Amino acid sequence: MKIYQQLVTVTAILLSSISSRAQLPPVFDSSRMATVQTTPTVRRYLSPEKIIWQTPDAGDHIHNAARFLLPGNGQADLANQNMCVLKSTSTLHPGLLFDFGKELHGGLQLVTGMYKSGKPVKLRVRFGESVSEAMSDIEPGKNATNDHAVRDMIVEVPWLGKLEVGNTGFRFVRIDLLDDNAELQLKEVRAIFVYRDIPYLGSFKCSDELLNQIWMTGAYTVHLNMQDYLWDGIKRDRLVWIGDMHPETSTISAVFGYNEVVPKSLDLSRDITPLPQYMNGMVSYSMWWVLIQRDWYQHTGNLAYLKQQAAYLKGLLDHLSKKIDANNSEDLQDGTRFLDWPSSENKPGIHAGLQAMMIMTLDAGAALSKVLNDEATVKKCNDAIAKLKKNIPDANGSKQAAALMALSGLVPAKQINDDILSVGGVKDYSTFYGYYMLQAKAKAGDYQGGLNDIRSYWGAMLKLGATTFWEDFNMDWLPNASRIDALVAPGQKDIHGDYGAYCYKGFRHSLCHGWASGPTPWLTEHVLGISVAAPGCKVIRVVPHLGDLQFAEGTFPTPYGLVKVKHTKLANGKIQSDIKAPAQVKIIRE
Predict the structure, then answer these.
(1) Which of 62, 156, 408, 568 has the largest CB neighbor count within 10 A?
(2) Which domains does the chain possess?
(3) CA-to-CA distance for 520 and 442, rounded, in angstroms?
(4) Mean pLDDT of 106-130
């Protein structure tokens, strides 16, 4: 509950300067913060919430560290009062570890005083998404790196001045005085929080506080990744991975509504990927581009933007429709064959997943081509789908492939859910494809199973101290695992440094990855029951599924304003719904 309140509060801070926007309950005390406007992001300065660690037996070598928890103004001054004084010897170099309370994107501000030497002083600054990462060295053992963003650096702070460093994802920062026999007076150590100042228009609240917390955490995870472009991670993978974007754009539609970061990122991927190349080098990622375009048009109804994609879309669909062999099997051999990392060694599963994705993509492409009055491409897509549906590969136990096969209609969703998705509960779930596993369970009518899996899988990350969702998570990591917001105790497993695989081994593992936000749009779509039934949200279908919940309420952003719903389970088990919508939006209730 405490973490949820922190999430809600920080989100409120993001909105506090805009009185006309939807607001959430407060979290951080605004007296601790100041704002500088930039475009398209803002910068806020946050004092740490606590000091987790200091150099053992530092004694007088660290004096008055508690002053860092006070509000700051970012200004050095001649009064030189109430300073923290760090003193080193040739053998003792004092350090402190700060906790800023939740995952942030940005850097660190250091404000100094008038110490005796009057010269710059060297500090080592280490950012971490976990306590153990902030305490780590750049070394191969647990794979701490400076990839994508430098998180471990040596800097010089000026006498009676200010230094701002860092551009990464973090919650924890460790600073160490490196110079021998030196004194440093520090007035402030504050996080520089960089984010888009946008309102949380969508909302979700139900009778289960864990689900409320999960919804908000997914929303906040994506919000942090909405930087100049829509990234996958704010520490590592600060890149536009177009396939990874699909859960993120689904979350943006459910929470923020239209935001220019989506078309900007879609266009970047298009413009740097001439046909017949595949986006990010992966055959499935160009297909995800088509699926995102379909979903984005459905939400925004922006025909002018869709027309800008017409030539590329036509060329891509033409290319894909030819990638079918004589056995009606997908023949995508000219790029990297990939669904997600946990499934990457299951080649039969990848084939089954790509077969399904081809159907999903060509179906979306046909729908968009129809809007664009390109009947020739519509026919080409439909003919290719008819061929692909004649070949039903074996998912080979892959929950990723099974989910896509259910969503594409290759295999009945109930059969997929019973035979593969529900086996072992959330065993073999992944943070990326977990969204599609949940979607397939909903298509099978197993809404309660979806709620249970969200609680078990995403809820487990929260119990380990997460304030954003991770690049990957495996339930096998749980036994005797440490929390990310505490020092690892003797005999415990380091949940961050000891686990991970492929590109996310150890501390290279991102603990804020937008592709993990799937529960947020899923809860909006299936518990609140809100789905878009006509382009531009002109028709909204509302079909709630409360499962074991007593009530659920929330909002959904459309181009015309908010749709507001409240569903209450009555004593007889029936659901009473109160629905309000803008005049331009037709509501269909089933």
Answers:
(1) 408
(2) 33-196 (2.60.120.260), 273-411 (1.50.10.10), 532-589 (2.60.420.10)
(3) 14
(4) 97
All residues at 6 or more sequence positions from 139 whose CB lies less than 8 Å from its CB, including other chains? none
Q: pLDDT tens-digit profile of 210-258?
A: 999 999 999 999 999 999 999 999 999 999 999 999 999 999 999 999 9
- For 88-211, list the strands marked E by DSSP: 95-112, 121-128, 152-157, 162-177, 183-196, 203-206
Of the pLDDT bands very low, low, confident and very high (cuts 50, 70, 90), residue 60 is confident
In degrees and rounded to multiples of 5, residue 509 shows phi and psi of -60, 125
pTM score, whole prediction: 0.93
CB 450 within 8 A of CB 526: yes
Identify the residue whose tokens are 């289960």.
Answer: 208
User: CA nearest 231: which of 200, 201, 252, 253?
Assistant: 252
Give every strand in the sheet of 539-542, ordered side by side.
530-534, 539-542, 586-589
Query: What is the chain's percent helix, strand, coil content, to nearest 5?
Result: 35, 20, 40
Q: What are the helix (H) ranges across 226-259?
A: 245-255
| pLDDT value, residue 39 | 60
Please name the residue that has the structure tokens 């979290």. Answer: 27
User: What is the SS3 assignment for 517-530?
Assistant: CCHHHHHHHHHCCE
Beta-bridged to residue 276, according to DSSP, are: none
The alpha carbon of 340 is separated from its chain's Cα centroid by a whole number of angstroms, namely: 16
Average pLDDT (167-178) is 98
Q: Write the CB contacts of 124 (distance below 8 Å, at least 6 apart in sequence).
A: 95, 152, 153, 154, 155, 174, 175, 176, 178
> Where residue 590 falls among pLDDT bands split at 50, 70, 90?
confident
Half-sphere exposure of 390 (CA within 13 A, CB side): 11
Element (H, E) at 552: strand 551-558
